[in-house]
Amino acid sequence: MNYSKSQLFWLVTLRVLIGWHFLFEGVVKVVNPNWSSIGYLMDSGGFMAGFFQGMAANQSTLQVIDFINIWGLIAIGLGLILGSFTRIATIAGILLLSLYYFSHPPFPGIKYAMPMEGSYLIVNKILIEMVALAVVFLFPTSREFGLDKFICRKQNKKVE
Asked: Is the pLDDT of residue 71 over 80?
């Protein structure tokens, strides 16, 4: 795609900032030996609450969920920051955010034990970040500015 310099700058900036958010959230969980998703999952509300609470009720499943959550956040963050495998990282980020969103949907009438970071009605920061990732997916920049540029160049040479 042909972007203007300012379009490319802002799209790459969006991709990197979202990547930083994912990476930082994953690293914070790695360095905290007491971190677990159990409280978050048990506090789930809405029509999928039973699904998320059921995952938290099984210790083996919870350990897998915690591992996937931590290392998924880190991998997605690195992929977005470095511009490497960004299509995969973007889709994985959207899927992970959708799980977060449906675990704690900002719908009327749902009460949570943990206080929310604001007052929301349907649209919250998770949904906004999910839509921003969709923009990153639809307007890819990693072949212009990222490691995918070099990966694709090598693949094109092999095909020729």
From this structure: yes
Return the pLDDT at 156. Answer: 54
CA distances (Å), origin 85, targets 39, 97, 139, 141: 32, 18, 14, 11
Residue pair 83/149 in contact by the 8 Å Cβ criterion: yes
Residues of the domain holding 24: 5-159
How many domains would you assign to the chain? 1
Q: How far apart are CA 140 and CA 90, in angstroms?
A: 10
Proportion of the chain above pLDDT 70, given as a percent:
94
Q: What is the pTM of this model?
A: 0.89
